[in-house]
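Model the whole thing, not chain by chain.
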Amino acid sequence: MTPDDRENLIHRHLDGIATAAEIETLSHLLETDEAARVRYLELSRLAAALRCDLRLRAAPLVVTVVPMPAPPRVAPRPAPGWLAAAAALLVCAAGIWWSLRQPHLSGPVIAEVTAVHDARLAGVGPAPVVGERLAMQELRLERGEITLRLDSGVRLEFLGPVAAEFEHAMRLRLDRGRLNADVGDRGKGFTVVTPSGNVIDLGTRFAVDASGPERAGVVVFSGQVQVQPLSRQGQPGTKIGLSEGEAVQLVRGASPERWQSVPLRASPAEALAAGGRDDVSPLAVHDNLADAEQRRFYGVVRGGMVPGARAFTGVEAPAWQAVPGLSFPEELVGADVVRTFLTDKRRVDFTLTLALDGPGYVYVLHDIRRPPPAWLAHDFTDTGARVECGPWDPQVNIVASDAPPRGDRVFLACSVWRRVVPQAGIVTLGPPRDPGVPGRNMMYGVAVRRVP
Amino acid sequence: MASADDHERFMRLFLRYEPEILRFVLAIVPQLPDARDIVQETAVALWRRFDAYEPERPFGAWACGYARIETLRFLRRAHQRTQLSAQAALALMRSESARAGDDELREQHLAECLRALPLEHRRLVTDYYFEEKPVEALAGEHRRTIEAVYKTLQRIRQSLLKCLQRKMTEART
């Protein structure tokens, strides 16, 4: 038996994967060979120490998030002129020293906790609290959500479970999980590295979803990012730009694919929703736009239909509201909202396909000023319920004289159409208007209520 | 008959030395569930004989004597095909008793060696040894094959041992 064979045999036994024959061989070896016993004991004592020495567990190797005291806040006092000059020189020297160090930045990154929700960090005792400052390198969020503000001003919201590591203050490796990033002016260039590709911020709000296997989703809520797919061997490929309202899936070794159904949380400001991909995307949305450069996404908000729910992707203000004097239609409340694109309002060849994972109801919220397109009148039933969408600025081009303002804003009334979907399947919606219909109209809204 | 005070004293001593006993057993029986069973049997045996314990003797050494008996009993009774033979275990115990008692220093150095591991390896050590995650789960999380995870664990142990031995040698010279 070679020393390597002996070594392998010992390790296999320590890991509990040795076969009966291998254990018999090892037993014989240990009975007869002192050198083998010494080596076995060296390795088994090491493994035993790792298994049961609580002091090793308490060592910083598991506590990768270390609370730091808040920096003292000292009120500024007027300084004599010579002192101010000396201080300026000192700051300048420190700045040069810091900038020289930037390319070599490594080790913990300082971050302040700005929000926590049911967060459990692996290897850390009590969850951090808002206002706490942390020196962190590795982040392993087993569940819940935590928002951190780095000293650079970059704000990162992690949606568990997350496995991530700060390579330095401007570069985060996201191995698993989701994050929403608001980078701000000083954080321009902040990069998120995933196993499928890199995301380089150009001053924006964006999100990355690495919760699925072998692919990462990137969605831009405002500003621009560059995404850089990786080859199968891990070599960075050509960067492509991604703008507000666009989303792609990065798959290692392949070209980026358009990501059409993006699970969003039910807030007016766009942000990726928490939860596993399967949790939040039982409803898949696809349009028929053939443009290869087209990368826009549909926000899908699970259970998000309530009065005040944002109506469209890329436009923050207009929301679904109750008509004054009427209550919000009860059957819509709690339905999933698909945030459509306002710019599709004039397309007469547009189709939107909804893939449902089970039985349910599909609702189309149609601009009541115009007749329903033929497909809507044929496939759906007018429930008689009405909602409003607004507020709109009276100057926007969908608002015409047939939509009088209320105060200084306009609200557009919509009819609520319903279609019963008896089982999992595909429902195709047509264009928002038939060809030749005059006048301005709003893009329709979509909601889906699934039957449990 | 043991009193309530004896019981409390025993519990305090046992809880304090339990990691040492477990570590002793794990050196011979590396599978954690088996080792925990043996420690449990050891605790019962120690409590039964606690009236014979002389407080001036180190409790750890006294307890490890019983752990040795229970370990051999386990190996003989179970005679499991996944365990070393009792003869091999006896030979290991003899070699083990000849080693220097430098646990404190070893732990200190081992902690330093752990900190010096690459982050990915520290993460694996944490998951495997501290969080006790099964290798199948680790393979999924780390996007590796099961065989690759075992190989990495093997390399980590070898690297830690090398680091530990270097530090122990430096400390002695």
